UniProtKB/TrEMBL annotation:
This is nitric oxide dioxygenase. Its EC number is 1.14.12.17. It catalyses: 2 nitric oxide + NADH + 2 O2 = 2 nitrate + NAD(+) + H(+); 2 nitric oxide + NADPH + 2 O2 = 2 nitrate + NADP(+) + H(+). Pfam families: FAD_binding_6, Globin, NAD_binding_1. It is an enzyme of class 1 (oxidoreductase). Keywords: 2Fe-2S, Heme, Iron, Iron-sulfur, Metal-binding, Monooxygenase, NAD, NADP, Oxidoreductase, Oxygen transport, Transport. PROSITE patterns: FAD_FR, GLOBIN. Its cofactor is FAD; heme b. One of its GO terms (molecular function) is oxygen carrier activity. InterPro entries: Cbr1-like_FAD-bd_dom (IPR008333), FAD-bd_FR_type (IPR017927), Flavoprot_Pyr_Nucl_cyt_Rdtase (IPR001709), FNR_nucleotide-bd (IPR039261), Globin (IPR000971), Globin-like_sf (IPR009050), Globin/Proto (IPR012292), MRET (IPR050415).
Length: 387
């Protein structure tokens, strides 16, 4: 029976949804690292998030098997396998992973481990490892790119613009994001959105904001130096504009500007575009770090209007230590307030394609404010709010 035996599969799934399931997953990793020690080096020192994510994946995949659905798990696992190439995962790692998972479940479920459960476990684990490794092997493209930092500009206290030269061009759509590993924080991959469209010469640029207590973002802002080598994954994400689907509202909070800026630069290749209104917000006026670029795009492209927004109307004393972002006249007058309030002061924007990019809190609040004003939720796009 194997994958058709819903009762046997339910025994396996119960093991990964019970309250102490993360301990079970912890034992799986311990077992895997014991039988294949080099695998430990592929993971970050703190495995808490990893354990959570792997438990969720097992829960979802086993749930799909129980519902006798295979299409979505195949698509999901294949993508996961392709993504894992960037970690340097090999065929042998999948074999030892399958072995460790089987051994851990077997010893955990000893009383319930019937022949049927054994059959279901073997087939489910082989399915997961087989689809992931098969998709990784079948993928002709590269698993990761290396980029050498050319420039690092501290544009404000908590903000850096980083320009890199990739070892070969990375093909992505404007608005997509990649995962990035920096040398200061090995194996701690974080999502970043390129702030320029894909370049045939392999140049790429990121805007990074140091979040409070954030390990990687603070290292990038404070410690990145020219010559550092970053590792980048293949691109993800579907945020985009349809040039034939009416006017556009963009709302960017801080470095959430990056993907929208890439889209604006891409649009500026065309003479004729839908009208785009961009609200670019930050806490202080001095943190509106990229107004000059926006001013340059708007000066040459009459379809773009930009409204700067700052939560506070004056700058803090430390602003004097950083470049003044104020561009020549030409943009709308800076507004004071929080982005959701300022944007909805102008109306509901119900007739627009709406793209929102920024911190999870800003995305949630702006979406809620716009929907409350009548914007159709299906016209609102944003990236996932968790990494
Ligand atoms: C699709 C996507 C694209 C992204 N693009 C960019 C980008 O172009 N530029 C950029 O600077 N960041 C971007 N991020 C955020 C980035 O991936 C990291 O989450 C962020 O830099 C924090 O990482 P960290 O290691 O410093 O913090 P962690 O050590 O992972 O977390 C420390 C603390 O910071 C909080 N935190 C995490 N992310 C944020 C956030 N965005 N805002 C406020 N608090 C947060 C966490 O909840 C936690 O409490 C993007 C995220 C996603 C999901």
């Amino acid at each position: 029976m194997g994958l058709e035996d819903r009762d046997a599969l339910a025994v396996l799934r119960d093991a990964v949804i019970r309250p102490d399931a993360e301990e079970l997953i912890g034992r799986f990793y311990t077992c895997w690292f014991a039988i294949d020690p080099p695998v430990r080096d592929l993971f970050p020192p703190d495995m808490t998030d990893q354990r959570k994510v792997f438990r969720q994946v097992l829960d979802w995949v086993l749930g799909e098997f129980i519902a006798q659905r295979a299409e979505e798990p195949v698509a999901f696992l294949a993508q996961l396998g392709r993504d894992h190439r960037r970690y340097g995962v090999t065929q042998e790692h999948y074999e030892t992973m399958a072995h460790a998972l089987y051994a851990t479940l077997n010893s955990d479920l000893e009383e319930q481990w019937t022949d049927e459960v054994d059959d279901a476990a073997r087939q489910a684990i082989n399915f997961i490892a087989g689809v992931m490794s098969g998709a990784a092997q079948a993928e002709p493209g590269r698993g990761w790119w290396e980029g050498t930092v050319l420039e690092h500009h501290r544009v404000s206290r908590d903000l850096a613009v980083v320009r890199l030269q990739l070892d070969s061009p990375l093909d992505y759509h404007p608005g997509q994001y990649v995962q990035v590993e920096v040398p200061q924080c090995p194996r701690r991959w974080r999502y970043l959105s390129p702030s320029i469209p894909a370049q045939p010469d392999g140049r790429i640029e990121f805007h990074v904001r140091a979040v409070s207590g954030g390990m990687v973002s603070n290292a990038v802002v404070a410690e990145t130096r020219p010559g550092d080598v970053w590792r980048l994954s293949s691109p993800h994400g579907a945020m985009q504009v349809n040039r034939d689907d009416g006017d556009i509202l963009m709302v960017a909070g801080s470095t959430g500007l990056a993907p929208l800026r890439a889209i604006l630069m891409d649009l500026s290749r065309y003479g004729d575009n839908p009208r785009v209104h961009l609200f670019f917000g930050a806490r202080y006026p001095c943190e509106l770090y990229d107004l000059r670029t926006l001013w340059e795009i708007a000066a040459n492209n009459p379809w773009l209007s930009v409204t700067p927004v700052a939560e506070y109307s004056t700058d803090p004393p430390w602003a004097a230590d950083y470049p003044d972002p104020q561009p020549p006249r030409g943009l709308h007058v800076r507004q004071t307030g929080l982005l959701p309030d300022v944007v909805t002061r102008y109306g509901g924007w119900g007739d627009r394609q709406i793209l929102i990019s920024g911190s999870p809190g800003m995305i949630t609040a702006t979406t809620a404010a716009l929907v409350a004003k009548g914007a159709p939720p299906e016209r609102i796009q944003h990236d996932p709010t968790t990494g």
